[in-house]
Structures are given as structure tokens and as C-alpha cells.
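Example S7 (C-alpha cells).
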């Protein structure tokens, strides 16, 4: 089905869900543990980086970039078991500003994100961790057919913002620490509006953490390894995408997916699965190639392998797949997903993922699914 309704209206809904899901664990923790400012810190960092030329159309835009980031962070102390499993992470919210050093074409970026910081090494004076963040981004410049046609990168002001960082923290005093980090900030609208090559900004960033209050003693419970369990996740998801040229029509895409997952630890579950895709935009793609575009020809199917990080009811998932049935070859044989699942009830979950082909976004999948569990004791 072709769609001509306002892109802003269509796009806002899944991105708001993305922000809500990614911040859920933080909000739930606030409600259970009282005042959010208990165990809290204020973090300020300066960023220096560059635009990554992951596509030929971006090479002419590559410049060094600068920016800053301010975060409100909260140290978990293990009141929930998942916090102990992941070595007492920090959670919180951050605002980031980036100047792309190209005011006429790319402008600047503003983003609000929820994050979780997962320590892998912690001593009395040092912490090394991996930080994941997701939320909403606003880019001051976007593609315009006449006024800004050189912007081949982003077709909308509002975008999803995703950030990954490797962080090191050195304690200077009871309340002050120095941070040095390297990471990547990504902006994309999931092909709701073309062009959508996405902006990738690797950067080094450094600053200070000021701890508002001293951290309480970590809670250490006796942790038992769960009994190995299996489940089958059945999912239906849909998305909306626009294909070139810009300002064209938008099309629905549909996904039916089944994954066989095994949980044999406290942090992760993983397993293989099967996907069936029905992407209506491929009809136009085949027509442009002067090829038959009947309904069956736009069907795609693939096999994937899923790795899911379990954070209470929230799951962060990473998924890599290969098409075994695909008559449209221009996207390549490999597809990937990154996103979230949230367990609404014992078996019902909602899903939000970004499907990509290498570094190019295909579309955002919003879905609902059901878990068929053989053993419910894993969590």
C-alpha cells in the first residue's frame, strides 16, 4: 500500500516509543527506589570527532566536529538482581550538542537520550565500561530540493539518535572523577524520509563526573544460575519507508518472524530464527528495473541469529541475518537489526528494531509478539 500522509505524523509515533522503551528501566527504578537524585552524578564532557564517510555521497561533507554533552547519571546498588548480574551499572539521561562544522549544509545536532553504562572492570579508583544510549535527535539542516540539495544524507529534522561509548573513569576525590571516552553517535530516520544515509560521528570525549551524594554499599545477594530454558518468540511487525527520489510516496513493509531462544545464563539469551518480509516498496523498485513486480516476487525470506541482553523486562537485541529467498539483489544478502523488546506480561511483548543493510537503514519495525515458553524459571 502506498502512503501519502504527513511524514511528521507517521514518524513521531515509533520514535517516541523508542525513547520510552529505552528509558523504561530507569523510570521503573526511580519509582521503586525513591528520589532519583539519590546515588546521582552530573557528567559534563567535550566532544571532538569527525564525520564517517561510509558512502561516496558523504565524502564531500566530511569535516572535524566539536560538541558537548551533559548527563544526569544514577548509580544502581543492586536492589534488582539484573543490576548485580551486570556489575551495578549506571543509568540516566543525557543531552548532546554537535556542530558538524558545515553550517550551510549539515548544521548542528541536538539529542536527548536515555542510557545505560555497563561496567566491565571496576576498582576503588577506576572503572571501564560500555555505554549504550538511544533517544530523539534534532538536526537543524536537512535535504531540500532547491535550498539544500547538497545534503545527500538526511531528509528530516527529527531523527533517532543512538550512541555507543567505551568509557574510562578515574576517581580524583570522593565526589569528582575524570572521564575519557571514545565512541560513535548515529542519527537516522529509518528511511521514513529520504535521503537517509545517516550521520555517523566517531569522537573522543573527555570531561568530569561530579557525584552529588556518596554511593551506598552495593547489595550482594546469593545468585543461583538459572535452569537452562527454551522459548519460541513469534513476532509480527510493520514499518513505513520512503524510497528515492526524495519527497516521494511512502510504503508499508511487513515482517513475520520466529526465533528459537535458549537461556543458559543470567545476562543473555540467543538463538536462530526465520524471517518473512513483504516490502511493498519493492514493487516500484522492480518497475524501475523493467521487471515483473507481482505480489509473490516482493516476498523475501531469511534466516537470522539473535543475541539478547536481558535487563529485567527490557531486552536489548542484536540480530544478523542472511536472505535465502530474495529476487531483489541490490540490497545485498545480509541484513541486521538492533533494537528493543519489552515484556508487557508473562508472554506478551512489544518490539522496536531498526532493520539495516550494512550501514544503510531499511526501515523501523514496530511489532507485537508472543513468547511460547517451555520453562519460566529462567528469569
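Recovered sequence:
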Amino acid at each position: 500500500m502506498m502512503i501519502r500522509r504527513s511524514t511528521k505524523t507517521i514518524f513521531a509515533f515509533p520514535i517516541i516509543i523508542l525513547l520510552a522503551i529505552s528509558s523504561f528501566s530507569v523510570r521503573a527504578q526511580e519509582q521503586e527506589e525513591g528520589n532519583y537524585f539519590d546515588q546521582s552524578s552530573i557528567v559534563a564532557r567535550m566532544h571532538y570527532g569527525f564525520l564517517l564517510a561510509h558512502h561516496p555521497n558523504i565524502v564531500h561533507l566530511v569535516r572535524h566536529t566539536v560538541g558537548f554533552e551533559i548527563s544526569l547519571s544514577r548509580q544502581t546498588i543492586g536492589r534488582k538482581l539484573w543490576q548485580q548480574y551486570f556489575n551495578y551499572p549506571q543509568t540516566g539521561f543525557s543531552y548532546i550538542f554537535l556542530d558538524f562544522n558545515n553550517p550551510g549544509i549539515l548544521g548542528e545536532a541536538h539529542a536527548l537520550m536515555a542510557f545505560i553504562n555497563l561496567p566491565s572492570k571496576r576498582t576503588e579508583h577506576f572503572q571501564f565500561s560500555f555505554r549504550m544510549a538511544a533517544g530523539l535527535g534534532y538536526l537543524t539542516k536537512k535535504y531540500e530540493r532547491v535550498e539544500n540539495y547538497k545534503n545527500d544524507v538526511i531528509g528530516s529534522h527529527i531523527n533517532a539518535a543512538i550512541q555507543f561509548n567505551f568509557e574510562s573513569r578515574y576517581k580524583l576525590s570522593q565526589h569528582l572523577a575524570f572521564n575519557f571516552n571514545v565512541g560513535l553517535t548515529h542519527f537516522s530516520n529509518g528511511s521514513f524520509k529520504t535521503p537517509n544515509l545517516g550521520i555517523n560521528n566517531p569522537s573522543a570525549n573527555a570531561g568530569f563526573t561530579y557525584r552529588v551524594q556518596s554511593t551506598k554499599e552495593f547489595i550482594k545477594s546469593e545468585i543461583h544460575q538459572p535452569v537452562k530454558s527454551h522459548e519460541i518468540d513469534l513476532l509480527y511487525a510493520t514499518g513505513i519507508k520512503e524510497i528515492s527520489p526524495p519527497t516521494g510516496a511512502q510504503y508499508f513493509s511487513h515482517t513475520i518472524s520466529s526465533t528459537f531462544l535458549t537461556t543458559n545464563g543470567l545476562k543473555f539469551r540467543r538463538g536462530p530464527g526465520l524471517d518473512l518480509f513483504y516490502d511493498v516498496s519493492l514493487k516500484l523498485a522492480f518497475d524501475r528495473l523493467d521487471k515483473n513486480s507481482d505480489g509473490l516476487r516482493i516476498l523475501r525470506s531469511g534466516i537470522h541469529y539473535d543475541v539478547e541482553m536481558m535487563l529485567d523486562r527490557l531486552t536489548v537485541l542484536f540480530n544478523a541475518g542472511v536472505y535465502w529467498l530474495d529476487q531483489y539483489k541490490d540490497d545485498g544478502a545480509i541484513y541486521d537489526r538492533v533494537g528493543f523488546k519489552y515484556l508487557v506480561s508473562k508472554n506478551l511483548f512489544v518490539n522496536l528494531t531498526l532493520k539495516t543493510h550494512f550501514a544503510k537503514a531499511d526501515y523501523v519495525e514496530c511489532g507485537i509478539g508472543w513468547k511460547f515458553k517451555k520453562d519460566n524459571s529462567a528469569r
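Notes on this example. Residues 4-13, 15-22, 24-32 have pLDDT under 50 and may be disordered.
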